Amino acid sequence: MDYRRLLLALGAQIGVFVFGALSWLALTHGLLASALLCGLGALGLAVLGLSLTALNVTRERLLNRLAPGSTFPSELNRRRLQLLLDETPSPLLLQTEDGQLIAVNRAARSLFDVAYALPVASRKVLLGGDGALTGLGGQVRWKGATYAVHRAEMVEPQQTSHLAVLTDISADVRAAEATALRDLLRVLNHELMNALTPVASMSRSALELLGDDTPESRAAAAKALERVVARTEGLHDFINAYRALTRLPPPVMQPVVLDEWLDVLRESFTAQWADKGVVFDCDSVTATVLMDEDQMWLCAGNLLNNGAQAALEAPNPRVRLSVREVEGTVCLRIEDSGKGIPTGDADQVFLPFYTTKATGTGVGLSLAKQIVQGHGGALTLKAAVPGDPDRLPGACFEFGLKQV
Questions:
Q1: In the chain, fewer beta carbons within 10 Å around the N or the C end?
Q2: What is the rounded (10 degree) CA torsion for 287, 292, 297, 298?
């Protein structure tokens, strides 16, 4: 309030007092007209004073809002940022230190049917038992759609929050599944034709030989039937492998002390491969992870056995299992000293029934990959790094498990 408005307001108050006193005196002396006139003057001055006071208060508030460091520009920026976030098509989730999971933008609020924060039930379904956004895997499914998860940490002076961006990759996943199905049908057709064609040919030959009814023809027919039996047994094994691959149950996730689990894995591998000359190096780590022990035994066993078989094809066979902790995840790496996987085969090693071994079923790596995916991770074949002293020269597979 400047000095001019202050003087006017003060003058108005003095005027109200004076006119009020004159009105009272006129009223006591019976001068009703004069008393009424003085009262109206006092009322007018009072209204003028109140108007000046209100005008100054409004002016001060406006100046305070527009002053440097005021909250008005901050509020304006916040609203602009919210408008931009609401236009973002990818759902954004923010988890604060108190565990609350907030739907940041319109896409997230629409996806989870909330106005602000996700309820506890939805949070547990999305994040699992620990309810931590940091434990969310690389992919998540919600309402029949698949989303890729990208996480970031937001460090503020008072607290640390975690942000997750969900990108809808359902179309990509469906395309990949269609491609995988075509590849699977192609491999199945190849394997079945390879098994059934000689069976039909040898069966026909055996039937013709039995028609001759001579000792030589009967002996030749018996040999042909032996080959038919061997081929049908091989086809039976192939079908059993296919059933194991397609009937894998969902994993039963439980906390497992990784060091104890690795000790048993080390003993099992040594008992099977030590007498063949394969050296096994295995790290130790004091961490607890979530996994289905039986399924992960099958996964790690397939990877280690493949590594041992490959290592035996080169001098000084060696297999290594190394462990490292990265942001709430325990990464396991299995590598061998064999000849490695040719570059042309790298994209096909995870296909069901694809194998480069004469006696292999082509199920081990595909089953291992399916088990790791069921645990919320991804089994990857790491490319060779020439000249890296920390890497064995053969194949190298890596996957992660959630840490408790």
A1: N
A2: -150
Tell me the C-alpha distance between 372 and 123, whole Å: 23
Say how many Å lie between the first and final Cα of the chain, rounded.
Answer: 63
Q: Which of 3-7, 327-331, 359-363 has the highest mean pLDDT?
A: 327-331
* Second CATH level (architecture) for the domain 88-168: 2-Layer Sandwich (3.30)
Q: Please tell me which residue, 232 or 58, carries the higher pLDDT value.
A: 232
Token reading at 299? 């996964």
Q: Where are the domains of the chain?
A: 3-67, 88-168, 172-246, 254-402
Nearest to 277 by CA among 308, 322, 300, 320: 308
Q: Which two tokens stand for residue 388?
A: 């890296």
Tokens found for residue 289: 């992870």
Neighbour tally for 47: CB within 10 Å = 12
**Count of H helices and E strands in the chain?**
10, 12
Using CA atoms, how far apart are residues 296 and 258, in angstroms rounded to an integer? 11
**Distance separating alpha carbons of residues 126 and 94, to the nearest angstrom:** 13
CB-side neighbour CA atoms (13 Å) of 200? 6
Kindly give, in sequence order, each residue whose CB lies less than 8 Å from that of residue 324, ignoring residues fewer than 6 positions away. 330, 331, 333
- CB neighbours of residue 175 within 10 Å: 11
Element (H, E) at 15: helix 3-28
